[in-house]
Structures are given as structure tokens and as C-alpha cells.
């Protein structure tokens, strides 16, 4: 009996993980074509990174961009 409950819990957890992943994918740019060069610095974007889909910046510029976005959001709140 206890084993059944554990199995069900594990199954449920898997389902929730899949749903969370699907939500993330739906809200992201994945699936869209990537750029071959960074939109900001025009450096070549590594092929492996391009394969993520929807990539428009190199890792460095993406980091910088995300950081800037966070600051803009924080400023907007305060
Ligand atoms: Zn760049």
C-alpha cells in the first residue's frame, strides 16, 4: 500500500515537471531561429548556442542584457 502511494507521488511529480517545462518552453523564444551573430556586439554565436533556438546574443551580451533588464524592472517598481 505505502509503495503504491510512493509510486503515485513519483508519477505525479514527473507530470508536474513535464507541465512546468512545457510552460517554460511556451513562454520562451525556443523554437524560433537563432542569429548567427550577436545582435549587440556582432560576434559569432557558437553553433551549440544557436541550436538552443531563438538566440540573438552571445553569452556575454545575454548576461549583460539580463542584468540590465533586472535593473530596469527593479527601478520601475521603486
Ligand atoms: Zn555579443
In short:
The chain has helices at about 1-25, 45-50, 60-75. The protein is mostly helical. The longest helix has 26 residues, at about 1-25.
Unreliable residue runs: none
Can you tell me the overall shape? elongated
Q: Helical proportion?
A: 55-70%
**Helical stretch tally:** 3
| Helix and strand run | HHH
What's the end-to-end separation, in Å?
53 Å
Small-molecule components bound = zinc ion
Number of strands: 0
Taking the sheet with the most strands, its summary is:
none
Averaged pLDDT, please? 86
β-sheet strand percentage: under 5%
Secondary-structure content class:
mainly alpha
Rg for CA atoms: 19 Å
Describe this structure in words.
With 78 residues, the chain is an all-alpha fold. It is 63% helix and 0% strand. The protein contains three helices and no strands. The protein has helices at residues 2-27, 47-50, 59-77. The model has no long low-confidence stretch (mean pLDDT 86). It binds zinc ion. Residues 38, 40-41, 43, 57-58, 60-61 line the site of zinc ion (ZN). Zinc ion binds at residues 38, 40-41, 43, 57-58, 60-61.
Q: Which labels suit this protein?
A:
mainly alpha, about 65% helix, 3 helices, about 80 residues, binds zinc ion
Amino acid at each position: 500500500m505505502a509503495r503504491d502511494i510512493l509510486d503515485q507521488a513519483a508519477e505525479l511529480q514527473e507530470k508536474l515537471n513535464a507541465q512546468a517545462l512545457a510552460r517554460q518552453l511556451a513562454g520562451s523564444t525556443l523554437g524560433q531561429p537563432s542569429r548567427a551573430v550577436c545582435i549587440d556586439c556582432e560576434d559569432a554565436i557558437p553553433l551549440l548556442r544557436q541550436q538552443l533556438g531563438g538566440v540573438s546574443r552571445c553569452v556575454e551580451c545575454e548576461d549583460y542584457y539580463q542584468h540590465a533588464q533586472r535593473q530596469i524592472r527593479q527601478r520601475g517598481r521603486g
